[in-house]
Design goal:
binds L-homoserine, single chain, 35% helix, Dihydrodipicolinate Reductase, domain 2, Rossmann fold
Length: 409
Amino acid sequence: MMKKKLKLGLFGFGCVGQGLYHVLHETHGVKAEIKRIGVKHRDKQRPLQHDLFTYNPSDILEDPEIDVVVELIDDAEVAFQIVKGSLEKGKAVVTANKKMLAEHLEEIYQLQRKYDRPVLYEGAVCGSIPIIRNLEEYYDNDLLSSIEGIFNGSTNYILTKVFEERKNYADALLQAQQLGFAESDPALDVRAFDPKYKLVIAMAHTFGVFVRPEDVVNFGIDRISEVDVKYARDHNLTIKLVARAFKEGEHVFGLVAPQFVEPNHPLASVRNEYNAVQVESAFSEKQLFVGKGAGSYPTGSAVLSDISALTYDYRYEYKKRNEGTTLRFSNKAAAEVIVSFTADKAVTPHDFLQFTGGFRGNGHQFLTGYVPLEKIRNWAGQPGVNVILAPGTRPKSIKSIEKEQVTAA
Ligand code: HSE
């Protein structure tokens, strides 16, 4: 197929925007040039010639020469308006805005159909790992049963520094911010919203379901105390923030939470800002993708790959969705956790679906057992309670746990 030369209108010139500019100019194979860059702040110093920049979005949206809008700004709502406006004007879109996509995915799916223009977003999920296109194309006819892994670079960087270099949490977070890995509001990273947005996007391409981000339970790494870290070290474990979605019967479940990980677990060796995605399917079984999940050039390269795909008219077909999936999202699952807290009775054995035991150490109490995902959500709103999934455990539907209980009785 003859590749065409694309004219790009770029919105945003921050970490990823500048990364894209760099990788675009270092690569010779991609037939695309940036015509205009829309930015917000007039008083910022820019490293490129002044007339490339505009403060008026219409200069890009109304320019008939611009074929593709590349949206790389921070504000999710403004970003959505840009995406919508671009499609209405017949332009294709590339975006890396996971919050915007997770919050508006179904609408964006409909808008693509309505205006017959594509929206590509490989850079939004796990940075440089080409997971969306693989889910769309490679696993087309396969029976995917789960997708899980490390979906956030900043928190993986922080946990690596805390465990390997005994850095304190605050210093490690500051470094992740200085390196351009963290979101402008780093609470999105450390409280596990950012990996949840990515999981929501991945779920649409894995299972064909559109899930509201607020329906998925997320628990962050911001409450991990020195006592939890000591517990991990004493048991030869590390901690990773794991995002996962899996299918059981007619339901799809999702959860993002920290987990104690054994040294021989594939995620244990994924360090710093690297991400990992493990896909499990009926015939190919387990496959692990590893790559840089954050940073200017790795994310810029994923955005560039989408631009390149547009030169041969690529679009997502949302095959699992369009094949007429009957799967539905549910939170009726439970996970085996080790929950730690200091205030007496903040957590009790009654909170558990299956209580397996407890112990005290270093001024903390620990209780273990299976808890429903909704309980993990409640604890996320209860300061002083920290939840870490038990090593080796995978959440299961409550139905299957009840079945096991009946069989065991
Ligand atoms: N803040 C995100 C992360 C950036 O740390 O993974 C990449 O999406």
